[in-house]
Amino acid sequence: MNRVPDSELTMVPGGTLITATPEEGRALAFAMARHTIHNIQPDLDVLAGGRPNYATSPDSLIAAGHVVAVEFQTIAAANHYWRS
User: For residue range 55-68, what is the model confidence (pLDDT) as tens digits?
Assistant: First the structure.
């Protein structure tokens, strides 16, 4: 099996949700979404094999965007982005 390295199977890259800026928070949300998928399916060949199906499916792309949005919502809450 062409497996994701164990070092990449972390749930929270860097071990913290605290970021210096919302832009860094958004980048962390994307990283967390990727790590979530890798933890669910660590076989890179299986992931790559399915890519043609979900990469061209509007529903799949919207679902992926939703995962990132939920991760960003969690990060925003941890960082109090909504406060001045």
Answer: 999 999 999 999 99
